[in-house]
What we know:
Elements: H1 12-19, E1 27-28, H2 45-49, H3 54-68, E2 76-78, H4 81-89, E3 97-101, H5 107-114, E4 119-122, E5 132-138, H6 150-161, E6 166-170, E7 192-197, H7 199-202, E8 210-214, H8 219-226, H9 233-244, H10 248-267, E9 272-276, E10 279-283, H11 287-296, E11 299-300, E12 302-304, E13 307-314, H12 319-330
Parallel strand pairs: 1-11, 3-4, 3-5, 5-6, 6-7
Antiparallel strand pairs: 2-8, 7-8, 9-10, 10-13, 12-13
Helix pairs in contact: 3-9, 4-5, 10-12
Amino acid sequence: MTGSGVFHGGGIDAAAARYGRPVEEWLDLSTGINPCAPPLPDIPASVWQRLPDSDLIAAARHTAARYYGSGAILPIAAGGTQMLIRALANRADVNRRIAVLAPTYGEYQQVFADSGFAVDFVSVADAISPAHGLAVIVNPNNPDGRVFSRDELLRLCERLSETGTILVVDEAFADLEPALSMARATERFSNLVVLRSFGKFFGYAGLRLAFAISGDEHGPAIERILGPWPVSGPALVIADALMRQDHEQLRLTIRERRAALETVLEEAGFPVIGGTDLFALIGCQDARAVFEHLAGEGILTRAFDYRPDWLRVGLFARDEDGLRLLSALKAFG
């Protein structure tokens, strides 16, 4: 649980207190974070001792532009996607509604509602209307893995540009599917804002690092809202170094872990009904009961109040963790 009131996974300390099991005994499968992070680069001592220099910020932004394929648009670094969502609430027209393609990441509804906006959950993109000043699509989606093709989103951008509607495409889980990305389209559509998460694919959620990609209409304004030094120097150095690497082996490792997870779930009788490369969504009659059973075994997963038949399970790093999950699931019932 976070201070926002939305449960995101993680929170092992809270789970430990609730279920009476020490933190070190928990297997955290409640997030969509790569459990096999690449080695960290060396960080010069000076980076820890000074505010981030302009050349450090510029280097990370240019590397991010190459990594995300945003062309001439330099991504804006922020201390996590949450910070960018709050910045977007400052860019939306207060006299128009917000559309969120749902179900999806709960912070969008929470932040915009807290900022005084009327938020509509829509199930299809065609339901986004001229009444909406901003629309949010997470692609691939969390938690069901729904995917929009790039062509579909380009057509939507074109339509929404006619009504001055900002389209926010959250690509937090797109690193393994770069063909889906709308980053380059920000050169063409001034109403498009693309959000990217660094920590999920690279496995360093604790850095609190994300990027916003947008053109001149919204990009500079987002920078002003974030203010100076929204990201630490060490985070910028790490991002710059890791985004420069060859990522083929990292993608292969993640896909191997995802296949291992699916094998465990299906062997235990919980077929996968959705998800992304970084987590699986399973359908079960009483997901809360499965969640509680696993928690009693020291395994934290992710249940959803709005879908009592869904349970999200993240990747495990080691085969022995998979055997632990398999044993716990087989014992359910």
